[in-house]
Amino acid sequence: MRKILLVGALALFGAMNAQKSSFGIKGGYINSQINTKENMDFEQVALDKKGRSDFFIGLFFEQKFNEKIAVQIEGLYAGLGGKYQGQLSESGSYAKLNMDFGYEQIVFPISLKYYVIPELSVYAGPNISITTSSKIKGEYKESNLPPDVINEANQEMASELHQFNKVLNDNLAKPTFGVQFGVDYTFMNAFVVDARYNLGVSKIYKKDVDSSLKLNYFQVGVGYKF
Fold first, then answer.
1. For a 10 Å CB count at each end of the chain, is N or C smaller?
2. Region of residue 162 (phi > 0: left; psi between -120 and 50: alpha; otherwise: beta)
3. Is residue 29 part of a domain?
4. Contact indicator for 31, 51 with CB cutoff of 8 Å
């Protein structure tokens, strides 16, 4: 039995080595939104969801098993989150409120790839993310109120959010999970153009925080295989 297992392991190792393995680096643009069942508001100002732009960068390893099938493992740093906008209106006075939810994450995607042609592959798989920090920022702007009134309101909001961020950082869910699916194209045998969509599966915060926030995002980038 030991001999059979040893022969099988050697055969598998040899088959993997016979196929192409590659390492690489990648980076690019990412646009994320917060997905939640809740209506978002701040101090009775209703907020509308917007996309948040940032970047990602990282490393990847790909192991081909044959001409069609491969597995890719990545380690990425990603700036994620979402933006919200609303307007405070009262007695002819108004001020636009901008909220920025920022999350720095280390993401580990694992993808099963299928090569449609030698240069083009489609893929899908799960990912695990570790949120290293989160920060919510807010600012009133584009207002017809006097500047000193707006400055005072922004200072008060900054103080309130400072305390709120401490609570949220203490209640970050670690890790969180998602599913990605996408497509990539290799040219000149080394350069890769990649586009994917990630669907958040688990919540950003623990059960202690009354929130159903999840992260969805689209990313597009370029990479180089060594």
1. N
2. alpha
3. yes
4. yes
pLDDT digit of tens for each residue in the chain (226 aa)?
A: 444 334 344 444 444 444 689 999 999 999 999 988 777 777 778 888 899 999 999 999 999 999 999 999 999 999 999 999 998 887 788 889 999 999 999 999 999 999 999 999 999 999 999 999 899 999 998 888 888 988 998 999 899 899 889 888 888 888 999 999 999 999 998 999 999 999 999 998 886 666 788 999 999 999 999 9
Assigned domain for 156 exists: yes
Q: Specify the residue for token string 């081909």.
A: 64
Determine the structural domain holding residue 177 and report its residue range. 20-225
- Evaluate whether residue 78 is within a structural domain: yes
Please count the structural domains in the chain.
Answer: 1
Residue 224 in tokens: 């180089």
From the list 11, 28, 10, 8, the residue with the least C-alpha distance to 191 is 28
**Global confidence as pTM:** 0.83
CATH code, 151: 2.40.160.20
